[in-house]
Amino acid sequence: MKPLAFLFCIVMYSIIVLPVFANAQERELPKGIFGYTETVGDTVIPFSWKVEEYSDSVIIKVFEKQKSFLNICSYDGSTLKWQIKEKGRHDIVAERIGNTLNITGIRFGKPYSKTVQIDDRPWYQPLSYSLAEFLDSDKDMTSFWVIRADSIEVLPLTARKIGEEKIYIGDLEIPSQKVEVRAEGFKSKFWHSTYWYRKSDNLFIRYRGVHGFPGTDETIVELVKSPEEKIGI
């Protein structure tokens, strides 16, 4: 599996945000373009993350060298539409209609179509944004659907708060909320990952997880560039 694919299918790839959602449209969303790096062994992949706010939706865009991810979400974090594009390989769009995910487009250069029935749980594609309501709530755990960007498999995941932690990015100490995300069912024994979100505004700042069998290099995603003067605010 390619590194960014898994993060933003559960982020980000596929990687990367907020008071109670009754007042969601009054919230201050992160402004500008944020830079991240994904590190797997000796391989470092830079990518950018941006959120755009509209009257009825929030759009999260992620750009890597030849890949892009477009996420259209409601203010409660639920994903309405998702698109992954990779030059010469993929151009796939997924959209939720009721409890059906319709997935169509081009995959590996060939026409692709898939329909998956899900339940009433939300679809959270960009965990860099979609877990914000959960972070602001009194709940300790939440469950949702995602689409793996590498395999286009639709999976239920569970996110659990596991405490607050001060982490360092460079010389900056950042108070953060730590969240563990696991697959449900028997797959929970084989895969889990950890996310950190900045306490002040729920900005996604770090991810750690192993995308493969035991012995596979750990994947680390970290905020490295912010429009703010100091990312530790």
What can you see in these coordinates?
This protein starts with a helix and ends in an 8-residue tail after the last strand. A 14-stranded antiparallel sheet has the order 8-7-6-5-4-3-2-1-14-13-12-11-10-9. It has a single domain (3-225), classed as outer membrane lipoprotein receptor (LolB), chain A, CATH 2.50.20. 7% of the residues lie in helices and 52% in strands. The protein is globular and about 50 Å long. The chain has helices spanning 3-9, 127-130, 132-136, and strands at 33-40, 43-53, 58-63, 67-73, 79-86, 90-97, 100-107, 110-117, 141-147, 154-169, 172-183, 192-198, 204-210, 218-225. The longest helix has 7 residues, at 3-9. By secondary structure, the protein is mainly beta.
SSE diagram, text form:
Blueprint: H1 3-9, E1 33-40, E2 43-53, E3 58-63, E4 67-73, E5 79-86, E6 90-97, E7 100-107, E8 110-117, H2 127-130, H3 132-136, E9 141-147, E10 154-169, E11 172-183, E12 192-198, E13 204-210, E14 218-225
Antiparallel strand pairs: 1-2, 1-14, 2-3, 3-4, 4-5, 5-6, 6-7, 7-8, 9-10, 10-11, 11-12, 12-13, 13-14
Radius of gyration: 16 Å
Find the count of extended strands (DSSP E, 2+ residues). Answer: 14
Beta percentage is over 45%
Runs with pLDDT <50, length 5+? 1-25, 229-233
> What would the principal axes of the Cα set say about the shape?
globular
Instruction: Assign a percent range to the helix content.
Output: under 10%
What structural class is derived from the secondary structure elements?
A: mainly beta
Round the mean pLDDT to the nearest integer and report it.
Answer: 84
CATH topology descriptor: outer membrane lipoprotein receptor (LolB), chain A
Structural domains: how many: 1
CATH C-level class: Mainly Beta
Second-tier CATH architecture: Clam
Largest sheet: 14 strands, antiparallel
Could you tell me how far the N terminus lies from the C terminus, measured between alpha carbons in angstroms? 34 Å
Number of helices: 3
Strand order of the largest sheet: 8-7-6-5-4-3-2-1-14-13-12-11-10-9
Order of H and E elements:
HEEEEEEEEHHEEEEEE
